[in-house]
Design brief:
- The complex is a heterotetramer of chains A (482), B (266), C (215) and D (649).
- Chain B is mainly alpha-helical and 266 residues long.
- Chain B has ten helices and one strand, in the order ααβαααααααα.
- Chain B has one domain (10-24, 54-265).
- Chain D is mostly helical and 649 residues long.
- Among the domains of chain D are: 284-530, no CATH class; 562-600, no CATH class; 606-648.
- Chain D is 71% helix and 5% strand.
- Chain D has helices at residues 2-17, 22-49, 74-97, 107-126, 130-148, 155-186, 191-197, 203-221, 230-236, 239-264, 270-293, 297-324, 328-363, 374-377, 379-392, 399-417, 420-452, 469-487, 490-496, 508-530, 556-566, 568-571, 602-623, 630-648; strands at 54-57, 69-72, 536-539, 573-581, 590-599.
- In chain D, the strands form two sheets. In chain D, strands 1-2 form a two-stranded antiparallel ribbon.
- In chain D, strand 4 and strand 5 form a beta hairpin.
- In chain D, helix 10 packs parallel to helix 12 (297-324), helix 11 (270-293) runs antiparallel to helix 12 and helix 13 runs antiparallel to helix 16.
- The longest helix of chain D is centred in the middle third of the chain and has 36 residues, at 328-363.
- Chain D is globular.
- The chains are: A mainly alpha (482), B mainly alpha (266), C mainly alpha (215), D mainly alpha (649).
- The interface between C and D is medium-sized, with 18 and 14 residues.
- Strand 1 (48-51) of chain B pairs parallel with strand 3 of chain D.
Chain lengths: 482, 266, 215, 649
């Protein structure tokens, strides 16, 4: 039941904001209230699923994977909404953006959340496809929020590439449906369970082709390398809170759909085929990004490429199977938390320095001390330096991989080292050095730093102690995958 | 223990003999072989002039260097590394004393001295190593390595005691002098001690060479030492002093002699 | 409708897609798209006649209204309104496009995709043609430079997927129908809002001017 | 052991809390460090005497592979002893030294990272699980990175920190690969499991693990090909930290090499030891040569750390060769030699770094050319620095000589007992050790002479005063320690020779006594007996008539010029003369002449520079794929689809 409340409340929020356009901060209040409500609901769902296992009703079926994703979306959702309140006040103060645009932002944001929740919990592939299409639409308009030519260009590219990807995904889903429709005549909605049960009738070759189409289709949404081209420009031109949401929440959601289809293909032709494909894409993404990062000159693109690399690492984790799956899930959670905190800190830097180019940003430690510390901790965590959890998950993925893909693991380790150098070069150039004279030092407002500290706090707690219910959810997912 | 007395007693004598031999080769009579004793006595009783810039190292170095030669003399038949590194203390303080007065000559003297002694160290250690273990030679033939080791040792002797091809003890020409330039600033009893220390060092080397290379017995040692003095005097009067940058090649040759000696021996 | 007429109709669609690939004038490709969607509505109407499923009738009407009438008219009006230059440039010259289209059709009919095209053995040739349609329309998007022709390309791509679904025996399935409806809905929004935005900012619908967002 | 770590953690977080008030934070962090160090000393000494080996597990852990398990055996106790010893002296030193950072930087952060650094080191030497070791290893590196860039106003330090962390990270990647291969064959990361399962690892894989571990730990220890970060990073850190880093941190690399090569991978082929021997000799030779070319005092000391690491590797390499030729007696001798030299190097290297720190604190520059005549203003620091330089150039009464003497004995035994090619490698190693000894002596005469003796080379030296009290206590304690370790090294030497008869042995105490007695005798005789009535007149140095300006003295570059020209094959020196004339027309009246002698670091210009260029070229080429054209992006997806379909079907 809770899921209906969540989606319903989001749609309701967007309607209220549209209707009561007059009141001054109706948008802010409603969106914060709704995101808190959604967090409580998804926590309840997670606890319920942890205790009683997957359950489904009407159009929704929530399994442990879905519950974890809901938790991620809810946590990132609350933090970004709180951040965007203060962020837009500052932007309005510098009259970069008008108040109508801010209202549009909150409307689209709640639509975006409802679409993501639907995508993760829907019980039929077509419904998830429509939900993902919905996210593409809402984010396309969000990217073009600033109404500058570059924002429009980024939105256009985002739109064209993602809709082609989704059409490929649609074709892939259709291929999965072909043998199934002939069986049940009543024409009811085909759910994941129906697909899974008679996956065995699926012709092996068709399921292979279907999985390729789905992987490349939804892979565009996740941003694996050949299909990643929209990501850097979209993240740079979008408002910062949206960047955090895109990489923190949308990436895992799109990835869950690939995983669900992989489950079906695994039952028909065994896991090896799916795993090899995932490893292939993961490897290309990590190696490609580790070279590109060295030559970047914009710190937002740096974060975009880093999320491509982490997407590659997660695909790799699922590709290696066994211990790798648990590690990849943990890696997804850690990555969402740390990447969104990095994005929010980069938002602060953008507000202060008014330019995203690395050349203009110097001496952040002097100008924004707290943000600099959050950014450094985030940088150390995201590149997998040990004291933090992501090092552990990286090692676990490697241990899963070393058994039968030794060369791949060695290449990955070397390219992560190269990635560390690239990322570190830019971060140390930004953090240290003399403060440019035009910038006056001092944190903009405490509300712009609390969200990052909150995210990093959760991350550090999770990297040392995993609560039992989350542990149970992770085990269920790890068990369900070959 | 008797070496502590014998070495300082007879070292000026050897230097006197060398000077006498050189004089004979230049067919002049030259001073008597006991002249060094008189010089030392004279220097001990003269006043001293100490530079304003010098620190306690300059004042205290002569005592350490002299004492080092005595200590080295004391455990001559002890461990070879100990002897080498005790003499190295002497060189260390000699070079520091040279630099302490802040005059250009002292600085360059210690820089050249350290270059020479750094390169000679390899040859020195290896030659003593071969000789002290010559009886352990596994596959018998120990004559050729002995010769090579002795040649290497003799070159090191000339280098360490600042004799001819490396440094001309008689000259004060700032372009060539190494040992003399370091003790340029000294006078009075400190100069005496420094001179005496270098005499002792020479005698220690001759004694080492004699004792290790020709084990005929204790009685023959004075004769062999005399032979050493004669050889040194002979070289000083027939050979020209090498240019400074050809010295490393000579020292590397001595090092290679010793390495080949060890290679052959075991 | 026996196989022969189906083949004949599919041949018409194939020609329209090839034509929109080559046509110099943009209006030609829009008219081509109109004809294509007309044939698709006929096909869905035929499957409605066969099965008598009411929802199919609803979809027939919807596609007819939107794809056959609204979309072409709207695009033509858009072109007139913005005096968009007539010629729709492509990256490759015509002979090369022909060669690629030929290779793609050969690939679609090849042994590689054999299992895909024999889902329903009777429709083997139809499915093969539909698959080649998909590949060609994908290539159309890549080849065209104008924003409007790219949208036309994406819509043809969507049409070919629908055709493949129909021939692969998915007429009945609710999924296909929802998919079609939602797709139409999405593309109405995109074409109306985005095209005007691009035009306002870039002065022309030529995509090649949008290249300043690079690393 | 756990309470030792807790003390340091309290120190770390305490100094963070107190960061508002500089003085309090400084006192808190240093006093905590001193208490922790004393506790560590007591712990290690009791552990050493009673031969207790203890293992701990800290808390249960949710993840399967990682178990926070510590195992303390004699080797780790020895290293805990070194760490706590040097931490004790460097924190005493830091009490006054950190005062000159007071207004500039956040002292709380310095205390926090200092304590984290020590905790990292303690965990590294005691952890017995691969992943726990890697976590401790990286905590140590990251904490020391923040210490290196502590003085961040000077951009060179930030650049030094960058090179340091990048090199350490590359080293860690090699170590991770090595551990992964071990995990693959033995199925777990725990050292005991690896040790018992090490027989199942095929020989080829063992060699691969050896090479990877050598590169990984060699980068941390600073052996020659991977040493470029050491002369850059150590000088950048505050002096008490660089003392700790070069005294102790690089030894953790040695500790892990011993742990893996001598303990885990035991049946070991001969060529491993020989390779370490060769690397050791090359590192020691090149280390000392580059040290000679330096005129930045802290860089000179950093290069000497490379040289001493080379000497330690000689001991380690010979012990590895002897174990593989199963001569346990000699193996024990050479291992004790290398461990004794690790202890000695820790003491005299931190002493020298502290001395350098005191000098830099007063003169505010690291360039030796601007020093000179400091012995008049800082007599005690000069004395301690003299003791340090005598110890490092292995002059007898101090501890440096006795550990080098043991290494020599090990190498001599190698020459006498082994045969054919192995003998010639041992001869090459002994030769390089001999030359390193000589060149080190020359280098430290230059360092001490140029800094302390004669007149000051730059005018404004009047306001220099002696180093504050706590600095002198720190340095005094360490110099006393070098002397005591030297004199009482007899026990260690007899322990080393217990089952091998050496042709000669040296007993330190009677050498020292005889040395003292003779010096006193000479002074008595010379000063009071012979010329009690001579006067000592003080007047200027002989100046052949010209006025004796600072230009007359020899400079550090001048001193080393002859040696550099002799070794110009390796060092490739380039001499540059900048002459300034009174008036530009006639060339005969130069106003001033500046000679700069630059040495080309062959590793940098022939290995690291080209590597960097290649990576940059590749990354720029790949970046161009993001060309901005939408059609190109769609083309990538199209190609990906076609390739995937063809490749998979």
């Amino acid at each position: 039941m809770e899921i209906i409340f969540i989606i319903g409340s989001y749609i309701l929020a967007s309607l209220t904001i549209i209707l009561f356009r007059r009141q001054r901060n109706i948008a802010k209040v409603t969106s914060v209230v709704v995101s808190i409500f959604a967090f409580i609901e998804s926590m309840k769902v997670a606890l319920k699923v942890a205790s009683t296992g997957a359950y489904s009703f009407m159009f929704f079926s929530i399994d442990s994977l879905g519950a974890i994703m809901m938790l991620i979306i809810a946590v990132i959702g609350i933090v970004t909404t709180i951040y965007s309140l203060q962020y837009f006040i500052q932007e309005k103060a510098k009259n970069i953006i008008g108040s109508t645009r801010i209202k549009q932002y909150f409307v689209l944001l709640s639509l975006f959340f409802s679409a993501m929740f639907l995508a993760v919990t829907s019980n039929s592939p077509i419904l998830s496809w429509i939900a993902i299409e919905g996210t593409t639409l809402s984010t396309a308009f969000l990217i073009s929020l600033y109404n500058k030519s570059s924002a429009i260009e980024a939105a256009w590219k985002y739109l064209i590439i993602n809709s082609i990807g989704l059409l490929l995904g649609f074709f892939g889903t259709l291929l999965y449906f072909i043998p199934v429709t002939s069986l049940l005549e009543n024409g009811g909605l085909i759910t994941w369970q129906v697909l899974a049960t008679n996956a065995v009738h699926l012709d092996p070759l068709i399921s292979k082709i279907a999985f390729i189409f789905v992987l490349i289709g939804y892979g565009t949404k996740v941003g694996l390398v050949p299909m990643h081209t929209w990501k850097p420009s979209a993240y740079t031109k979008a408002p910062t809170p949206l960047g955090a949401l895109l990489s923190g929440a949308l990436l895992p959601v799109a990835f869950t759909i690939i995983l669900r289809f992989k489950l079906i293909t695994d039952t028909t032709i065994g896991p090896i085929f799916g795993q090899n494909l995932l490893i292939g894409f993961g490897l290309i993404s990590i190696v490609f990004v580790s070279f590109v990062i060295l030559a970047l000159n914009n710190y937002k693109r740096l974060l975009a490429y880093s999320s491509i690399e982490n997407a590659g690492m997660i695909t790799l984790g699922f590709g290696f199977g066994k211990a790798g799956i648990m590690a990849a899930l943990l890696h997804t959670i850690y990555h969402s938390l740390v990447k969104s905190s990095l994005f929010l800190s980069s938002g602060n830097i953008l507000l202060k320095y008014h330019s995203a180019r690395l050349k203009d940003v110097r001496g952040v430690m002097k100008v924004l001390p707290l943000t600099a510390i959050c950014f450094t901790i985030g940088f150390l965590a995201i590149t997998g330096t040990p004291p933090f959890g992501m090092f552990l998950t990286k090692i676990l993925i490697m241990t899963a991989g070393i058994k039968n893909y030794p060369i791949v693991s060695v290449i990955i380790l070397l390219s992560t080292a190269l990635l560390f150098i690239g990322f570190f070069k830019h971060t140390s150039a930004m953090i240290f050095g003399e403060k440019p004279e035009g910038v006056q030092s001092g944190e903009i407002s405490i509300w712009l730093v609390i969200p990052q500290i909150l995210l990093l706090g959760i991350f550090i707690i999770l990297s040392f102690y995993i609560p039992p219910f989350l542990q149970k959810l992770l085990n269920d997912v790890a068990v369900s995958f070959p | 223990m008797n070496m502590i007395i014998l070495i300082p007693l007879f070292s000026p004598l050897c230097i006197g003999i060398i000077k006498k031999i050189k004089a004979i080769f230049q067919n002049r009579i030259g001073a008597s072989i006991f002249q060094p004793y008189r010089d030392l006595w004279k220097l001990f009783h003269k006043d001293e002039v100490i530079s304003r810039d010098a620190s306690w190292i300059f004042k205290f170095a002569p005592f350490i260097i002299f004492a080092v030669t005595l200590v080295a003399g004391a455990n001559l038949n002890g461990d070879i590394l100990l002897i080498i590194y005790t003499l190295a203390i002497g060189t260390f303080f000699l070079a520091l004393a040279g630099m302490d007065t802040g005059s250009a000559f002292g600085g360059f003297g210690s820089s050249r001295e350290m270059t020479v002694s750094a390169l000679a160290e390899g040859g020195f250690i290896f030659s003593l190593l071969t000789i002290s273990n010559i009886n352990l030679a596994s596959h018998g033939q120990s004559f050729l390595p002995g010769i090579l080791a002795f040649a290497g040792f003799f070159i090191v002797l000339l280098a360490e005691t600042a004799r001819f091809p490396f440094d001309n003890p008689a000259t004060h020409l700032e372009l060539t002098m190494i040992h003399e330039s370091m003790i340029l600033e000294y006078s009075g009893k400190r100069l005496a001690l420094m001179e005496w220390a270098s005499f002792n060092k020479f005698l220690i080397f001759c004694f080492l060479g004699a004792n290790l290379f020709f084990n005929f017995g204790f009685a023959f040692i004075p004769i062999i030492i005399f032979a050493f003095c004669f050889a040194v005097g002979f070289i000083e009067s027939t050979m020209a002093k090498f240019r400074f940058f050809r010295l490393p090649d000579l020292l590397i040759i001595s090092f290679i002699f010793n390495v080949v000696a060890i290679g052959l021996m075991f | 409708m026996n196989i022969l007429t189906l083949q004949y109709l599919l041949g018409v669609i194939f020609l329209t897609v090839v034509f929109s690939n080559i046509a110099k004038k943009k209006s030609a490709s829009i008219i081509g798209y109109g004809v294509q969607s007309m044939v698709v509505t006929i096909l869905i109407f035929d499957s409605y006649l066969k099965t008598g499923n009411l929802s199919l009738l609803f979809i027939v009407l919807l596609t007819f209204v939107v794809k056959v009438i609204l979309a072409p008219l709207f695009s033509l009006r858009l072109m007139k309104q913005h005096q968009v230059v007539f010629s729709a440039p492509t990256y490759l010259n015509t002979p090369l496009t022909f060669i690629i289209i030929a290779t793609l059709t050969a690939v679609a009919h090849s042994q590689k995709f054999y299992p895909l095209t024999t889902i329903i053995p009777a429709h083997q040739s139809l499915l093969a043609l539909a698959l080649s349609l998909i590949l060609i329309s994908f290539f159309l998007i890549v080849n065209r430079k104008g924003a409007l022709s790219q949208i036309i390309g994406v819509l043809t791509f969507e049409n070919s997927i629908v055709i493949f679904g129909l021939f692969a025996g998915l007429e009945q399935s609710v999924a296909l129908q929802i998919g079609i409806i939602f797709d139409i809905f999405v593309w109405i929004i995109i074409s109306t809002v985005f095209i005007s935005m691009i035009y306002k900012h870039f002065g022309s619908l030529d995509v090649t001017s949008m290249i300043d967002l690079r690393d | 052991m756990i309470n030792l770590i807790i003390i340091f953690l309290i120190g770390a977080f305490g100094s963070l809390i107190l960061q508002r008030d500089d003085r309090l934070a400084n006192i808190w962090s240093n006093s905590l460090a001193i208490i922790g160090a004393l506790w560590g000393l007591i712990f290690s000494i009791t552990n050493f005497l009673y031969r207790t080996n203890s293992t701990f597990i800290i808390g249960k852990n949710t993840l399967p592979i990682l178990s926070l398990s510590l195992k303390i055996d004699q080797l780790s106790t020895f290293f805990i002893f070194i760490i706590s010893l040097i931490t004790l002296f460097s924190s005493i030193y830091a009490l006054d030294y950190v005062k000159h950072y007071f207004k500039k930087y956040n002292i709380g952060a310095l205390g926090f990272f200092f304590h984290l650094f020590i905790v990292g080191m303690l965990l590294v030497v005691t952890s017995s699980n691969g992943i726990f070791f890697l976590i401790a290893w990286e905590i140590m590196s990251v904490a020391s990175y923040f210490l290196v860039i502590y003085d961040r106003n000077d951009l060179k330090n930030v650049q030094a920190g960058f090179t340091y962390l990048v090199m350490t990270h590359i080293g860690t990647v090699f170590i991770i690969i090595a551990f992964l291969i071990m995990y693959r064959f033995t199925g777990s990361f725990d050292f005991d499991a690896i040790k018992s399962g090490s027989l199942s690892i095929p020989q080829l894989m063992k060699n691969v693990i050896f090479i990877l571990a050598l590169i990984g730990f060699g980068t941390k220890a600073g052996i020659v090909p991977f040493h470029i970060w050491l002369p850059v990073a150590h000088p950048a850190a505050p002096s008490h930290v660089s003392a700790l880093m070069s005294g102790v941190m690089i030894k953790t690399g040695i500790y892990m090499m011993i742990r893996i090569f001598l303990d885990l991978m035991q049946p070991v082929p001969v060529w491993w030891g020989l390779l370490i021997l060769i690397i050791g000799s090359i590192s020691s030779l090149l280390g000392v040569l580059f040290a000679l070319t330096e005129h930045d005092i802290k860089k000179l000391l950093a290069y000497h750390s490379i040289e001493n690491i080379g000497i330690i590797l000689l001991g380690l390499g010979s012990s590895l060769t002897f174990t593989s030729l199963n001569m346990p007696g000699l193996a024990l001798l050479s291992l004790t030699a290398s461990l004794f030299h690790t202890l000695n190097h820790a003491t005299f290297k931190s002493l020298l770094f502290m001395g350098a720190g005191a000098v830099i604190k007063e003169t505010h520059t690291r360039n030796m050319e601007e020093y000179g005549g400091l012995i008049r203003y800082m007599p005690q620091t000069a004395l301690f620095f003299l003791v340090g330089s005598m110890a490092i150039s292995a002059l007898p009464p101090f501890n440096g000589f006795f550990s080098e003497w043991l290494t020599y004995q090990a190498l001599f035994q190698g020459i006498f007992t082994l045969d054919s090619t192995i003998k010639w490698i041992f001869i090459f190693a002994t030769g390089s050790l001999a030359f390193t000894g000589g060149l080190a002596l020359a280098c430290f005469v230059k360092a001490f002479g140029a800094t302390f003796l004669a007149r000051s080379r730059s005018e404004e030296k009047h306001q220099i005063k002696e180093a504050p009290l706590s600095l002198r206590i720190g340095m005094g304690g360490l110099s006393l320690l070098t002397l005591i370790l030297g004199i009482f090294s007899g026990k260690i030497i007899t322990f080393a020779q217990k089952n091998v008869h050496l042709s000669s042995s040296v007993s330190a105490p009677n050498f020292f006594l005889s040395f003292l007695v003779i010096i006193l005798a000479v002074i008595l005789i010379a000063r009071y007996l012979i010329n009690k009535n001579q006067k000592e007149i003080v007047s200027g140095t002989w100046d052949c008539g010209t006025t004796l300006g600072p230009r007359m003295e020899i400079t550090a570059t001048g001193f080393a010029r002859s040696i550099i020209l002799i070794f110009k094959g390796i060092l490739k020196p380039t001499i540059q003369h900048d002459i300034e004339y009174h008036d530009s027309e006639n060339r005969y009246l130069p106003k001033s002449k500046l000679v700069t002698l630059k040495v080309q670091d062959i590793h940098h210009s022939y290995f690291y520079q080209p590597l960097k260029q290649i990576i940059n070229i590749i990354s720029f080429k790949i970046k161009r794929t993001q060309s901005g054209i939408t059609n190109a992006y769609i083309l990538y997806i199209f190609i990906a689809l076609i390739v995937a379909l063809f490749f998979i079907l």
